[in-house]
Amino acid sequence: MMLAGKSVVITGAGSGIGAALARRAALVGSRVCVSDLDGEKARSVASEVGGIAVQCDVRDENAVQELVKEATRAHGQVDIFVSNAGLGGGEPDHAASASDDVWMLNWEVHVMAHVYASRALLPGMIARGSGHLINVASAAGLLNQIGDAAYSATKHAAVSFAESLAISHGSEGIEVSVVCPQYVATPLLRLSDADAQFRSSLLTADDVALSIIAGVEAGQFLILPHPVVQEYAIQRAKDHERWIKGMQSLRGKAVEILGRASPETLYKLV
């Protein structure tokens, strides 16, 4: 689906990948609805791109329904919905050490938010035979994120749900994409564009936004801003035992060199 002239809603768009995508979508002629939990950030980006801002907590299904209604009132039917809101914080100790609240927060933001958006949009999209749902997951959804089991598990679920959407509704004119970047210099990792300047493994948010637009316009399901992720996924599928051993080795290297296996610093080793 081409973005020019389309109504696009992006969650988590007050900063990072979401904000970069809002800017790029506006540049190619989209009518953009910028949504974020932080209303002030959403309004700032919306003002910059000539769009509208809607504060929304994607954990709340009623709030997601209202987001869709406000975007529809302002820009007409929602053509493209980007479920981009996300979080990550690592874990305090062993792989099961994060609290139940942290696990539930990851589940609500990384999985149920996608479900809520789909519930709000699919009936209308199916009726008219068009629409594009974009779920921003992570390379952790195809591989794993060392040091954050809750993040990895829920991103795997996000990829699976996107597959279900594509399988069930592709014949009804609904396009689906799932975005699986590896390391991106965003506030989530407490990194800036300057950090990405000399590391090929670290992309800027704008790099990812450009990949998303290219992938959507090419009709891709799996969008990989880091193409090497596909090679890793193939290696994992071919020999899971070997892949586990390799990941154990990477974790050990991180602890030895960096002091701990932290999601914020692992990009230095890949």
The spatial strand order of the largest sheet comes to 3-2-1-4-5-6-9
* Fold-level CATH name: Rossmann fold
* Tally of domains: 1
Number of strands: 9
Gap from first CA to last CA:
33 Å
Tell me the CATH architecture. 3-Layer(aba) Sandwich
The structure class reads alpha/beta
User: CATH homologous superfamily name?
Assistant: NAD(P)-binding Rossmann-like Domain
Fraction of residues in H or I helices: 40-55%
**CATH secondary-structure class:** Alpha Beta
Average pLDDT, all residues: 93
The count of helical stretches stands at 9
Main beta-sheet strand count, sense and barrel state: 7 strands, parallel
Described by the principal axes of the CA atoms, the overall outline is: globular
Query: Approximately how much beta-strand content do the residues carry?
Result: 5-15%
Uncertain residue segments: none
Reading the helices and strands in chain order gives: EHEHEHEHEHEEHEHEHH
Radius of gyration: 18 Å
List keywords for this structure.
alpha/beta; 270 residues; 9 helices; two-stranded parallel sheet; single chain; Rossmann fold; seven-stranded parallel beta sheet
Describe this structure in words.
With 270 residues, the chain is an alpha/beta fold. The chain has a single domain, classed as NAD(P)-binding Rossmann-like Domain (Rossmann fold, 3-Layer(aba) Sandwich). The protein contains 9 helices and 9 strands. The protein has helices at residues 16-27, 39-49, 61-75, 100-128, 149-169, 193-196, 205-217, 228-238, 240-258; strands at residues 7-10, 31-36, 52-55, 80-83, 131-136, 174-179, 183-185, 202-204, 222-223. A 7-stranded parallel beta sheet has the order 3-2-1-4-5-6-9, with helices on both faces. Strand 7, helix 6 (193-196) and strand 8 (202-204) form a beta-alpha-beta unit. The longest helix is centred in the middle third of the chain and has 29 residues, at 100-128. It starts with 6 loop residues before the first strand and ends in a 12-residue tail after the last helix. 46% of the residues are buried. The mean pLDDT is 93.
